[in-house]
Design brief:
The protein is α+β, with helices and mostly antiparallel strands. It is 56% helix and 14% strand. The protein contains 30 helices and 23 strands.
């Protein structure tokens, strides 16, 4: 019992060490579990939401639309739980300029169901549900009416025209058509896009992958058309897995592989055969209809000619009869005359034909009638020959005019909203996995320092207990239990902060970016217990080491005071010019610092670690803060990018040129596509968003203006470096040519692509081709791929055997529509932004982007919030570390401080004597921590692989100053706590002999 009481008394006396260990454990466990828990809560809530709304696991698209046969084939695939055929249509409407929307049919099979936020779901034809983004932008509300206009040609249904030039892809399938007079009855959340329109919308705009401005959801009532835009599938067993785990991806991949393996190939061929059969049927129907029309026309001509011939024959007969009568009147007998007059004379065919021609020639009316009949017959014969030739030409061209049908099998990764959320959370979680390592190392160092001092102070007591027969384990348990209790209390408080405080903070920021219905905080018993156990093991290991170091001595040696450290010279003493000029207190300070190497290493290491954490957090913040400025002011030299539909390209260029704001421009073609590492999978699978795939912006440049690209975009070749650095070549040393494509650094870094690599490109029409990477260009935001006009034609025009355009002549260039313009503008940033906004109101402009506006508005608040959290925790750790080291320093030197007081040192002089050493050690730690922070920051920044972003590590001088000043400020703050301890040292009791 006395042993326990003494142990409790010892614990109470060491309350400062207890608090230090508990605080370090609290901070470490909070960092270890907090960021993880916040991301885990977001992952789980969105996974539950996706399951509740039936977000598709697989989506199948086709360049020729999907038929009922395609849907039936997908239902038969092993592993498919549900298949839902979907119809959609792109429409436009007037909302401060032309805007576009996708009319989406609400599925009846429970897949991709919109989440109702306000009002009710549409049920009747003409009723729609809209997103909150549309309500915010339009100012409309439930009950408002809207009239839309269908696009002239829907890119979602088919890229194939029939043989007669119409948009129908078969004789029986019709493209989807929706009502045009609409009434808003509800506000919904699209499960495919959780972006918060009322939050940090500017932050995520650079990653928007939507092809239209809005999505309208309509019921099946009133929707016509038997051709489907897409098919969405749910996979058996996928709902039981977390959508963000690898197990889910493996489950879905098994089904997509089956679709790619057999169903896809068979249905592509079958669908193309359907199109060929439909084309042949149209040609046959056209021939039959033409033959019927020609037969009717021929019958009419024949009837008219017969009537004409009858008239002429009648005249011939009359003239022949009159001639015969006259001849009879001049005859010899009346009987002969009577006989002649009684019958019509018989004419041979030659005589009759001669008389016919004579009669027709003598009559202008008959001559004109005959000419009209002959002309009609000639025209009819020409039309027959022309029509037959046209139909034969169409028959010959049918197979080449109908391209190969392509299926694109996509998983959830292809959804822009899903991939953006996943990449954001994964990146933040990667930071949460890295920073606790530093906290753990610092915790072990500080625990070793604190517990070693605690055991050393009790060495005589330890010797006494051992001499009285107590086992070394029992004696060591006094300190092990002390450390364990401190860890458990600190870890318990850390779990509260880690599973409640930090996640609540992170989720507030996340909810500013994404809408997450049903979000709640959850506790993970396994992870929380392992988090505490990790720090318990580390701290207990340090405590055991400290106990073993002392208890390996005999009880007699332990009960005697520890022998003073042997005197020795330090290196500075050997530098005579410096040492001789130092004062007495300066020499004492130097000896105290460098003689006690363990204290030197612990203090400098602890301070350096904390400073490095602060620098690391600020480095990430500086890197993110400079992304917009570097990209939109340094890399992009143009001020304005304008994009239009192909049909409006000419009008767009005319509009921009006539406004007088442009000083120079470059016409290009911009398409949205994908870049896949060649060999990372089935190159013909068409799967987007899978491993080794990146969404890109394909920029084709006219052959005659390749050299002008360098005036609009800074072309600098880059090579990957280490620790977040990259080698950047000379500006202007990179040229676009016809031997390959230039890939943006942001895409190349994510996929591991370098100059000379082979990649698979998918253009805006879904055509795939293998291209060579000629260079990697410095690029931070977005994933641009630059290609010359000639190389574009070589890749995509000659890729398919069906295309006969294999030349690089001007014929290809005429087929390529320059639908975008890069332009430099005159005027201030404000005027350039206003001009871009005014262009978007023009009907010929689809999108106008001002680089000045993008540079000023680019934000990444989620990363900023996490960085602020990390810096705050690092600052707290620095404060605890300095407090622990300062108190340990004082406890080790109580007799020394007492001696100074006996020698006449005033309290202020004692403060200065002790604090000067701590400040020097702090400065040394700061000097070491600044470059260490840059090093760690580079490593962590490299781990932040996010779609369309490359983090070029940047640490501003101000960040180094902030880190250094913050650490020094913490050191000064600790002095305020240490000075009263120094004042309370009693010289008499402290100098009493321990013997």
């Amino acid at each position: 019992m006395a042993f326990v009481k003494d142990m409790l008394r010892m614990w109470a006396h060491s309350w400062k060490r207890f608090i230090s260990i508990a605080m370090i454990t609290l901070l470490g466990v909070a960092v270890l579990t907090g960021i993880y828990a916040g991301c885990r809560d977001a992952f789980r809530s969105t996974d539950r939401f996706f399951d509740a709304q039936g977000l598709h696991d697989v989506q199948v698209l086709s360049t020729a639309g999907l038929s009922n046969g395609d849907i039936a084939a997908l239902r038969k695939v092993n592993g498919v739980a549900k298949v839902q055929a979907e119809r959609s249509q792109e429409v436009t409407f007037d909302l401060d300029g032309r805007k576009s929307a996708t009319m989406q049919e609400i599925g009846t099979n429970g897949i991709d169901q919109p989440y109702l936020q306000e009002g009710r779901m549409p049920k009747k034809a003409g009723e729609i549900a809209v997103t909150r983004k549309f309500i915010r932008d339009s100012g409309k509300r439930i009950g408002s009416r809207l009239t839309v206009t269908p696009e002239s040609a829907s890119s979602d249904t088919s890229d194939t025209n029939g043989a007669d030039g119409t948009n129908e892809t078969s004789g029986t399938d019709e493209a989807p058509s929706f009502p045009t007079k609409l009434t808003i009855v509800g506000v919904v959340l699209d499960p495919q896009n959780l972006s918060n329109p009322d939050g940090y919308s500017a932050m995520t705009s650079f990653r928007s992958t939507a092809t239209t401005d809005y999505t309208f959801f309509a019921p099946s009532d009133g929707v016509t058309g038997t051709l489907y835009t897409s098919a969405t599938l749910l996979v058996k067993g996928a709902a039981a897995e977390s959508t963000f785990d690898e197990s889910y991806e493996n489950t879905v991949k098994q089904v997509t592989d089956r679709i790619d393996g057999t169903v896809k190939t068979d249905r592509q061929k079958a669908r193309r055969q359907e199109l060929l059969d439909a084309g042949n049927k149209k040609i046959a129907d056209a021939r039959a209809e033409a033959d019927k029309k020609f037969a009717d026309a021929q019958s009419q001509i024949d009837a008219n000619r017969q009537q004409f011939n009858q008239q002429v024959d009648q005249i011939v007969s009359m003239q022949a009869g009159a001639a015969a009568a006259g001849a009879a009147a001049n005859g010899a007998n009346a009987g002969a005359a009577a006989a002649a007059g009684a019958t019509t004379p018989q004419l041979d065919e030659t005589t009759r034909e001669t008389m016919r021609e004579t009669i027709i020639a003598a009559s202008p009316e008959l001559t004109q009638a005959k000419q009209q009949l002959d002309q009609a017959q000639s025209q009819l014969n020409e039309q027959k020959a022309s029509t037959e030739q046209t139909l034969k030409t169409k028959e010959n061209e049918l197979k080449t005019s109908i391209p190969q049908v392509r299926w694109y099998v996509q998983d959830r990764q292809s959804l822009g909203g899903f991939s953006a959320l996943k990449s954001d959370l994964d990146s933040i979680q990667s930071l949460g996995n890295a920073f606790p390592i530093v906290f753990l190392l610092v915790a072990v160092m500080m625990s070793l320092t604190a517990m070693a001092r605690m055991v050393e102070e009790d060495r005589s007591l330890i010797g006494t207990y051992v001499g009285l027969g107590y086992g070394r384990l029992a004696v060591a348990s006094r300190y092990l239990l002390f450390a364990l209790l401190a860890c458990l209390i600190g870890g318990g408080l850390g779990l509260i902060a880690g599973f409640l405080g930090i996640p609540a903070f992170l989720l507030v920021v996340l909810q500013g970016m994404y809408v997450m219905p049903g979000l709640r905080l959850e506790y993970d018993w396994l992870y929380g217990s392992l988090g505490i156990a990790l720090f318990v093991v580390g701290v207990l290991a340090a405590t055991i080491y400290a106990c073993v170091q002392e208890m390996r001595q005999t009880p007699a040696a332990l009960m005697r005071p520890k022998a003073p450290r042997a005197g020795s010279r330090i290196l500075l003493e050997r530098i005579r010019p410096v040492w001789n000029r130092m004062g007495f207190l300066g020499k004492v300070t130097a000896r105290n610092i460098f003689r006690f190497k363990s204290r030197l290493i612990m203090t400098v290491g602890g301070v350096a670690g904390c400073t490095a954490l602060i620098v690391c957090g600020l480095a990430i913040n500086d890197t993110v803060a400079d992304l917009g400025i570097k990209q939109y002011r340094d890399i992009y030299q143009y001020d304005l990018m304008v994009v239009s539909d192909d049909s409006d390209a000419s009008a767009m260029r005319t509009k921009v040129a006539s406004d007088g704001h442009v000083t120079s421009s470059l016409d290009v073609r911009i398409e949205s596509g994908d870049l896949t590492v060649a060999g990372s999978g089935d190159g013909d699978s068409g799967k987007a968003g899978s491993s080794g795939s990146e969404s890109i912006q394909l920029v084709a440049v006219p052959e005659k203006h390749l050299s002008d690209l360098g005036e609009m975009v800074t072309l600098q070749p880059v090579s990957s470096g280490i620790l977040g650095t990259s080698g950047v070549g000379k500006t202007g040393s990179l040229k676009l040519d016809d031997d390959g494509v230039i890939v943006a650094q942001s895409a190349a870094s994510a996929l591991g692509v370098k100059a000379g690599s082979k990649v698979r490109l998918t253009n805006g029409d879904g055509v795939q081709a293998t291209a060579k990477v000629s260079a990697v260009n410095r690029n931070l935001i977005g994933s641009d791929v630059y290609v010359s006009e000639t190389y574009y034609a070589k890749l995509f025009d000659s890729k398919d055997a069906k295309n006969t355009k294999n030349s690089k002549s001007s014929e290809d260039s005429e087929a390529l529509t320059w639908n975008a313009m890069l332009a430099k503008l005159s005027g201030s940033d404000t005027s350039q932004t206003d001009y871009a906004e005014s262009l978007e109101e023009d009907s010929s402009v689809m999108k106008a982007v001002s680089c000045a506006h993008m540079a000023d508005s680019f934000k990444f608040d989620l990363m900023g919030a996490v960085v602020a959290l990390i810096v705050a925790l690092a600052g707290g750790l620095a404060l605890v570390v300095l407090f622990t080291l300062a108190n340990t320093n004082v406890s080790e030197r109580v007799r020394e401080m007492a001696t100074l007081k006996v020698l006449g040192f005033f309290d202020r002089e004692v403060h200065h004597y002790v604090n000067r050493e701590m400040m020097i050690l702090t400065v040394m730690g700061v000097i070491l921590g600044l470059p260490l922070g840059r090093l760690v920051g580079g490593m962590l920044t490299m781990a932040l692989n996010m779609p369309s972003l490359y983090f070029e590590v940047e640490v501003k001088p101000l960040s180094y100053v902030i880190a250094a000043v913050a650490t020094m400020a913490f050191a000064l703050l600790v002095q305020l706590f240490v000075n009263p301890v120094l004042d309370r040292i009693d010289p008499i009791s402290s100098l009493k002999s321990v013997e």
